[in-house]
User: What shape does this take?
Amino acid sequence: MNQNTKCVHAGTIRGAMPQGANSPILTSTSFDYTNTDYNIYPRYFNIPNQTAVIEKLCALENTETGILFGSGMAAITCSALALLKTGDHMVIQKDIYGGTHYLLKTEFEKFGIDYTFVSNDINEIKSGIQKNTKIIYIETPSNPLLLITDIKAVSEIAKANNIITVIDNTFATPINQKPYDLGIDVVIHSGTKYLGGHSDITCGVALTNRNIAEKIRISAYNFGASLDAQTCYLLERSLKTLNIRVEKQCENAMIIAEAMENDPKIKKVYYPGLKSHSGHEIAKKQMKHFGAVVSFELGEDKAYAKRFFKRLKYIMPALSLGGVESLICVPAVTSHAKVREVERLKIGVTDNLFRLSVGIEDTADLLEDIKQAAA
Ligand SMILES: Cc1ncc(COP(=O)(O)O)c(C=O)c1O
Assistant: This one.
């Protein structure tokens, strides 16, 4: 199957019932265990609607299996805590989603798990490895500066040192980037973003091999952040159009990034599809399209954003990203609000950095909206 066909058909529930084009929503939390040799229960991550979505996502990411969670953070937390224990160490990219940053500060330190922040530079990642390093964790493109990390190089270093690799593939989506094919062990998504795609569900997923999945599943049973059948159904429905949505979003993003680069009002544009982007060459190697988030610096003071947002007609100032509607935010006060100011500024998340999540609207309308608001 090719990508569109996988999006539509992989995993659909078929069974002893009238054959519909869509999976039925099986809301039961209790299942007759005399017919199976294992127990079926939502928090065991094995109800039919969860399994159907996992099958589709595995078809898209080329992984063996996976676990669906109630949020992206649940997927990250359960995966990390399943694979680490007190005294272990993780090498982690510093330009990552602010929530992941916060997780380390609040929970890892509490559990005595050590970590070293590194840049996306492969030599720095390598030099961060210690004797007790168990995980290398990367996010590419990263949130919000869209830094690109060489996935294959990271997986090779990790394999040589017997370390598990985890990637947050949320920004790329499985349409643009298939980290498992490049040697990464665990692929995580905040499904709240592109996988859901309509800004109406919260979910997450960890996709991996059977061996690692068994370990994550044990922590997941305990932490309990499972996903209900109705949300699974909405996610399955959304995934049918993933390829089509993401292709249009990336096409829009490329055009907008190029236009912004030629606009003298905009100080700096961050988009891996631009030749001027530090990670452009690596992105070309490992991505199909360059994603649909464009970050840029605009305005002189903190108050500028308010004025700019007020003038926007279609692009909505809001948290989150990946939906069919274009959204914009200032990461300093949203996704990175919990990161200390000094650390935030050190990684380049300034008060005048905007993160635009490009939707599927007509390109000309989006371009016009940005132009008139910036004017
Ligand atoms: C890259 C990335 N990873 C993970 C998350 C966390 O996902 P969720 O909000 O679904 O828990 C986010 C949320 O914004 C994100 O942007």
Remarks:
- Residues 55 and 159 are 27 Å apart (CA to CA).
- Residues 71-73, 97, 99, 139, 143, 168, 170-171, 190, 192, 202, 204, 320, 335 surround pyridoxal-5'-phosphate (CB under 6 Å).
- Residues 242-261 form the longest helix (20 residues).
